[in-house]
Amino acid sequence: MNRRTVLTTLLAGASAPLLAACSSGITSLKGDGVGGDSGSSSGGLTIGTANFTENQILGYLYAGVLNAAGVKTTVKPNLGSREIVVPALRSGDIDLLPEYQGSLLLYLDKKATETEAGAMQNALATVLPNGLEVLPYAAAEDRDTFAVTRETADHYGLKTLADLRKVNGKLVFGAAAEMKKRVVGLVGLKEQYGVEFKEFKALDSSGPLVKGALKKGDIDVANVFTTDVDTAENGWVLLQDPKHLIPAQHIVPLIAARKADSKVRKALARLGNTLTTAHLTELNRLVDKEKQDPDRVAEAWLKKQKLD
To answer: Which CATH architecture describes the domain 144-238?
Structure first.
């Protein structure tokens, strides 16, 4: 999953909408431009994705439901980390991207303390840059987590992130480069748990580099996502998070408000109400394990769910 650089100029002009619970339990925002039809998708949308499998799949899922609703789309996959795709959205290079609630909130506000999905959705609306909106979040969720091998867990008695403190300076941590400066990363692990590592290796998050390094023993702790099928297959231990460093990570569309008309909102809401964490895990498996193309995987799933 990734998935927090503070943008100190983002607070001006933001409005704080109220929360209303949908019958499905998915939160909807009501506020300026949210839930209305102030935008227009008549010129089409460009969807960007981050540089990992799941986000690419989500980008093609977005494209599929929007195309089915009569909205022309272009997908620009694998653009890079949040530090690249969010500025691309702000500049107008892209119009829509799949995001993750907790990671996005902490990217925009390093001091945010909300961890529950509804509270985070409301908090997001108060810190978003002018011109951007978060639409209702999906049932599907994919959290960051920190994994060790069973052998490492047994050797050091590791069950929680707090346990890492007793082996300070002994273990090597592997993740995407940006995790070195993120709250859900080295910063938060040190501030909340007092954990320090012998070395940080810049690899990827829940990707082939970090998982390969964990298998080989080149790193001891890896950042992986909860929808990653390799965790169960390899018997890795996901360290528990008693202090709730890692917030809820429901999938949420982040969109340029000028494009968010009712056609777009309804299409993405249908997808969000249908897509579950189990679905997302299986879609990841088809791409990562079966080596299927993410656009084909997305297309087949949408057809099966009658969303095409």
So the answer is: 3-Layer(aba) Sandwich (3.40)
- SS3 (DSSP) at 42: coil
In the chain, helix, strand, coil percent, each to 5? 40, 20, 40
Q: Which of 61, 39, 51 is nearest to 255 (CA)?
A: 39
CA angle 113, 87, 137 (to 5 degrees): 50
Burial of 70 (0-12, 13-18, 19+ CB in 10 A): exposed
All CATH 3.40.190.120 domain ranges of the chain, comma separated, are 144-238
pLDDT 10s digits, 28-65: 333 333 345 568 999 999 999 998 899 999 999 999 99
Rounded CA gap, 255 and 143, in Å? 21
Rounded Cα distance between 39 and 265, Å, is: 10
- For residue 44, give the 3-state DSSP assignment: coil
Q: Is 261 left (phi over 0), alpha (psi -120 to 50) or beta?
A: beta
Q: Where in the chain is the domain with CATH 3.40.190.10?
A: 18-141+248-304
Residue 23 confidence (pLDDT): 27
Give the tens place of pLDDT for each residue, 5-17: 323 233 233 333 3
CATH second-level architecture of 18-141+248-304? 3-Layer(aba) Sandwich (3.40)
pLDDT, tens digit (0-9, with 9 covering 90-100), for 199-240: 999 999 888 999 999 999 999 999 999 999 999 899 999 999
